[in-house]
Amino acid sequence: MTRSGSHVDYPHSRRRRSHGRAIVSTVVALAVTAGIGYWGYSSLVAEEGPDDPEVAKATAHLKKFLDAWQRADARRAALLTDSPDNAESLIKSVMANLDPSKTEINAGDAEKKAEGEVEVRFSVGMSLPGAGRYEWDSKADVVKADNKWNVKFHTEVIHPEMVPGQTLALKTRDRAPILDRNGEDLESASLVGTVDARTGKGVSGLQARYDKQLTGGSGPVKSVVVVDRRSGQVVKKLTGPGASQGKPVRTTIDPEVQKAAADALSAVEKNAAIVALDPSTGHILAAANRPAGMNRALEGRYPPGSTFKVVTAAALLKRGMKPSDPGECPKFAHAGGQRFENQDQFLLPPGSTFRDDFAHSCNTFFVNARDKLSASALHDTAAAFGIGGTWDVGTTTYDGSVPVTTSDNDKAAATIGQARVQASPLVMASVAATAKEGVFRQPVLVPGAVKKKYEAPARLDAGVFEGLRGMMRATVTEGAGRALRGIPGEPHAKTGTAEFGTENPPRTHAWMIGYQGDRDLAWSVLLEDGGSGGADAGPIAAAFLQNLVG
Predict the structure, then answer these.
(1) pTM to 2 decimals?
(2) Looking at the chain, which terminus has fewer C-beta neighbours within 10 angstroms, N or C?
(3) CATH label of the domain that carries residue 38
(4) Where do the DSSP E strands lie in 327-463?
């Protein structure tokens, strides 16, 4: 992708002008401004009174020409001139290039120059997207030949600052680029966002959030210019802002990691996202979405399912449980009249431990462990991971929500990342990063725009994180994260299958989160309506990590 630069909104394909000789009237001295210009001239003949029939007929004829031009009916306007092909081509060009949302053209004073020749002044006002209101004055000679009135057409009639071979167009103010951490153009359509081609304003993503910085200030983002019709080169600037320059927006995105994430999603047919973080700094290294458009990676709201068991496990470890403690994993568990079950109703053999239950993602163990937790335990532990705070990231994000539970059923569902627990892929990547780092580091995308990073209101003991790390590694080596086995970098992970909707059986989002033991990289993979975390999100995570190691 090349950097955004100035350009003229001017079509490449142009209608060939007539080779007929244009009739050019005597040029007079002009003084035109961006507002309503005015000029003086020496009359060739004495001005006739307003009741002169020739003046009235010539003015009426010009009004027909101006009315057709105002309606952008170039053909009708052209037929009222002595050079229809030239007139039609130029009027079409001007109206297409300027694309006014409103046009007002009014005839003014008229003066009889000679028998059968009347000069009529007129004013043009247009509302131009991105350029605002633009007005100018012009004049036209209306001549009578063979008892028929015609507008004597030449380029200056349309605008007195033009000469033959030129037209009017809009030039967009130079827009500064959005950069990755290496200072190159950011290759992420979902993050960069879009600019309205008509108004020149950013309408989504970083283009919208930093529109003023990228363009160099407020005010019109486009100017009216005279351009050469053949080359499209700007000949003269008629309106617009001064020499204010936009400033680039620099992000933390690592182009290598971003490409690895985008490539891992390239063959995915469902909506999906990958987020990667540097756990030591919180810097967002990648945020890839498929399809591009909605930034589900940073803004999406989903039940995190069993990936939230990292938080639940932390709450249980904080309460004194150890990974080696016994942990029964039956097919079913009950709470508040609701039956909970494991995926495909699996169960683990007698003698299984808390560590085994985490690695294999046993729902029934976590549901049955709810009695060890208070109504606020999950909320408070999630807060230590930064969930539910207001993050100053430099772009729009959804920062998660883990409400205090209100019933036994609510608590049971919350332990496995269901009920009212909500998170974005960014939040869950941050959960994995916090597990690796041992402390919450608020994610950051645009460091220069961050005024105050969010600080978690509580911290967990080192022993809690030590236990989490061992269980996340076991998820890969022994449990549901088998898709990552054999990938270099000592991946640690947690799978998740999150139910949503009201169908029976329910549909599910597929998740996998984790971090690399040998480098500062934590990540999150979401596959919307994607099935199982281990079976469906796992291979995507594996492809992402494999892309990084080659």
Answers:
(1) 0.79
(2) C
(3) 3.10.450.100
(4) 332-335, 338-341
